[in-house]
Amino acid sequence: MAEYKEISPSAPAAARLLNWIDNRFPLSKLYNEHVGEYYAPKNFNFWYIFGSLALLVLVIQIVTGIFLVMNYKPDAGLAFASVEYIMRDVPWGWLIRYMHSTGASAFFVVVYLHMFRGLLYGSYRKPRELVWIFGCAIFLCLMAEAFFGYLLPWGQMSYWGAQVIVNLFAAVPFIGPDLALLIRGDYVVSDATLNRFFSFHVIAIPLVLIGLVVAHIIALHEVGSNNPDGVEIKAKKDANGRPIDGIPFHPYYTVHDIFGVSVFLMVFSAIIFFAPELGGYFLEYNNFIPADPLKTPPHIAPVWYFTPFYSMLRATTTVMVNVFSVLVALAALGALVKARSGAVKLGAVIGAAVLIYLLKTFDPKFWGVVVMGGAVVILFFLPWLDKSPVKSIRYRPNWHMWVYLVFVAFFLVLGYLGIQPPSDTGTLIAQVGTVFYLGFFLLMPWWSQLGTFKPVPDRVTYHAH
Amino acid sequence: MSKPEVDQGRRTWVAIACGAGAVGGVATAVPFVASFQPSERARAAGAPVEVDIGDLQPGQKKTVEWRGKPVWIVRRTPEMLASLQKTDALVADPKSERKPDELTPMADTRNEWRSLKKEYLVVVGICTHLGCSPTEKFQPGAQPSLPDDWQGGFLCPCHGSTFDLAGRVFKNKPAPDNLEVPPYTFLSDTRLLIGEAKKA
């Protein structure tokens, strides 16, 4: 609790008003902690724009969403027509809707780049584990939000996409079918499903999402931002206790962000006005056909941002489960040879035997769901998987960069394959990609320690322009 | 500052109050979770459907809605029925032995052609993988997404599962099981009741 502060009665009216507020609400304190005296490293590069952009897109989605709800009808009989009504009859409705639909894809673009930045510079390492975990939770919420929202236009892709994803839950052993029934609220995706997805999309998930964003930022401002060198700027402070390599967020990074926001808005507007469907990637063509529960479109695929994970789901066939079993057995063999204590050896062998038994017992369909979910959940554990002695890619062995590049390449290839109709070659490539993706994370405790690391400087590297 | 004495009596009551509060909280969650279940209206919509199949020509398929799902009725030609012998070795569960209560509730349909009358196939047109509706690929021979020795059947557009002309899933495909054969009854030679197996 702060002491009550008196201010000279002859002070300007604005100063007196601020003093009046500050004695009742920590306005100046909050501003200073999060903006005016938040010291961010001075060596940020362009990768550091995507956090601010994600916040901007969140605001765009919330504002456009509020206006869309004013004309949308969450009713299986009316939903499709109400979206067309927004597009054709509501003044400027098309613009608001295209901002919302393009915003959804833009959200994933900036969030994927934001996450990759974290990966490059080790922004999830101690003491930023919670910043990363809140971020992963935000990513999960975003996926839920996008999935629930995609049902609302009630087009063919909405309907069958929801059908497929809800049925994923039916693959869970024992409780699956009842769980899927509980999610749908009916025996098939129907009006009941549409209504509850609407509720989740407009209120439940956004509330959680905003809470997590606040937690993400509070945690970040508590520990301070990482930077491309992965050097802790708080280690070197000047006489006033301010980090020597830090600059106040305002005005330096606010101005920096205005530039980034301008570039982003140029691209964003270009898409909205000239290619709102972006060749079927942002708005799929099949979704311009009203939902028909009796007919699946000849080719269904999720929107692009889900396809890397969707590819992994499709790649998990009987053959793939056998490959997993062999890999688990090899891992156990490795533990048997390398582990020092007998208990670890025994544990590894028993664990592997149980896992192989389960792999062979349950349907590959269930394991497909496990792989897809695991591919997202594994991100949460990244702070403890990475055991490299340095944070930033700049001071890691050069070949680490190649591992990251192959990882990104496979992620993009998986994304591409998820859009394409299933084919034998495609499945084979997706299977290799899935093994690489999982191996990248699961073997990280070992490979991240290998190689010759470069000396990390005491201060950040910075060249004034 | 010395550590204050713990009043065990109060601590017990605090623990009991917390426990009772937790029970109350969980009990309050029950009606909310239960409200996710299908409503009475949704449950009532599962009535059997009557279909006229008099106009169905050999080699044709008809789709009707039952419990919101597509049900296919295919009148198979003798060639189509002959193809089932060739696919016997290629399908995962040729004799409909897996999950019989769920997939083939009528014991009379647990045969090679999976139907009461050999000529008419009646199956729920929902892939057992993730619930897409497969497309008909009755034309035999090589074509995109299908093997070169294709005998005719169904292809699921979502994940590439294939089924033969008795709705039996081919081996090593994402779909774990054959297509579901719903309970049905021939009311006459040309009238079919889907959703109920009446004893003749």
Structural overview:
The complex is a heterodimer of chains A (465) and B (200). In chain A, 64% of the residues lie in helices and 1% in strands. Chain A is mostly helical and 465 residues long. Chain A is globular and about 75 Å long. Chain B is α+β, with helices and mostly antiparallel strands.
Summarize the model shown.
Chain A is mostly helical and 465 residues long. Chain A has helices at residues 13-22, 27-36, 50-69, 79-88, 93-121, 129-151, 156-170, 176-184, 191-223, 249-274, 307-315, 318-338, 342-361, 364-377, 382-385, 398-419, 424-442, 444-447, and strands at residues 39-41, 246-248.
Approximate shape of chain B: elongated
Q: How many helices of chain B?
A: 4
Determine the N-to-C terminus distance of chain B.
89 Å
Number of strands of chain B: 9
Protein traits:
heterodimer; A: 465 residues; mainly alpha; 18 helices; 2 strands; B: 200 residues; alpha+beta; three-stranded antiparallel sheet; 4 helices
